Structure formats: C-alpha cells, structure tokens
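Case 214 in the screening queue. Each case pairs one protein sequence with one candidate compound; here the compound is S-adenosylmethionine. For every case the pipeline is the same: read the inputs, emit a complex structure as tokens, and attach any notable structural observations.

Predict complex for case 214.
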Amino acid sequence: MTKKWRNAREVFDGWALDHHAEGMEKSHRRSVEQAFRLIPPSDGDYLEIGIGNGYAIHHMAVNQYRRGRCFGLDISPNMVARAAERTRSLANVRIEAADFRHWMPPPETAFTCIFSMETFYYFEDIAAGIEKAVSLLCPSGILMILVNHYHENEASHSWPEDLSTPMTLWKAEQYLEAFEESGLRDLRQMRLQDGEQAAGTLCTAGTKPPEAVS
Ligand SMILES: C[S@@+](CC[C@H](N)C(=O)[O-])C[C@H]1O[C@@H](n2cnc3c(N)ncnc32)[C@H](O)[C@@H]1O
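Case 214 output:
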C-alpha cells in the first residue's frame, strides 16, 4: 500500500484537538525557557513563527515584550484557536493563521526579535525561510531558531516516516552558514538540554547589523 503523506497543517490541526499540543509544550518548554533568557527586554515588535498552543508567545508577552507587541503565526487554524484562547487577556498579542512563507506583516512593521521553536524544518527550503525572516528584522534585530530535527540528532531521523510528514534535515553547520549568508552577524549556536533529546535542542541565533551611519 502506498504511504499517505500529510502536510504540517493536517498534522497540527489534529494535534490541537487531542492531547499532543500539551505534550509538545511540556517537551519543548525547557529548551525555550533557556533560549528566552538570551533575549533582552524590548518595547519593539516580536514575531514567533509556529506558535503551537501559544505557551511561548504568552511568556514573551508578559515578560521581555510586556511593553512591546507580540505577533504570532501558525499554519494550523486549530492551533491558532488554542493560542488565541490562551492569550485572550493580553492586549499586546496578535495571532494569525498563516503560512509564514507567504505572510507579510502590517506596513511599517519590523521586528526586534523573531523566534521559532521546532518549525523551520517543515519548510522545504529552510534557507528561503531564514532569508525572509532576516528581511523582516529591524537593524540590530535578533533571529533565533530552535530545532530538534537536525542531522546530529540521530534519534530524530525517523520523524518524517513516523509522522508521515515531509521534513528537511539540515546539519548544524548548515543553519550557521544560512544565517551568515543572510547577512546576520554575532552568530551563536548551542545545544540546549531539554532532558529528552540526548543531542539537545539546536539553537542558532544571529543579529542583523545596525544601519550604517553615513
Ligand atoms: C512541532 S510544532 C511546535 C509548536 C511550538 N513552537 C512548540 O514549541 O510547541 C510546529 C508548529 O509549526 C507550525 N507550522 C508548520 N509549518 C508552518 C508554516 N509554514 N507557517 C507557520 N506555521 C507553521 C505547525 O502548525 C505547528 O504548530
């Protein structure tokens, strides 16, 4: 029998309705909290790509970006409904169901930080996703991408088959190279220990250069 592949929207629309969304939050939270300690407070605009049930954008909106605005996207309308419910009381959060690859922010909006946990490997062209994110950063803005599905984490290699969902497997150095080629500087890469992935969560971060003063 031929295998039936599902896209990310189909998978996560289902996961939003059963208990997988809470399981994801539990297994991702430790890495996300370690990464968030590296993000400075700001009164600017924050974007999270692939918000899932909204636990991380909620954290940002009441902590570092409590004086700023937080934008969140997810391709799954059911996940967006979960995240909207969770952040309903927060006036500085704006959440949308959208595919990041085709999404554009409101005019005149540039982000001081763009964050994403466990989403970029669902893109067939990860480099294009990174380039697009960098184009949406303001000068001195930070891009931070976390993934558990990467070459050095052998335990993750079976995930596309296990989930019947296409994923793009990159090496750690490919993330670094793509950050550099997109013009980011002050590159940092680390493995965050979450107690679940023996290899750790791969976190890659970089900063857009400040505008040249003429
Ligand atoms: C593994 S989940 C991680 C969710 C959340 N970041 C967390 O830490 O639990 C990946 C999320 O990315 C979303 N996603 C996948 N492709 C996307 C795309 N092209 N644009 C926006 N969201 C996407 C999925 O719907 C899903 O909610």
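Case 214 observations:
- The mean pLDDT is 95.
- The beta strands are 45-49, 69-74, 93-97, 111-117, 137-147, 185-192, 201-207.
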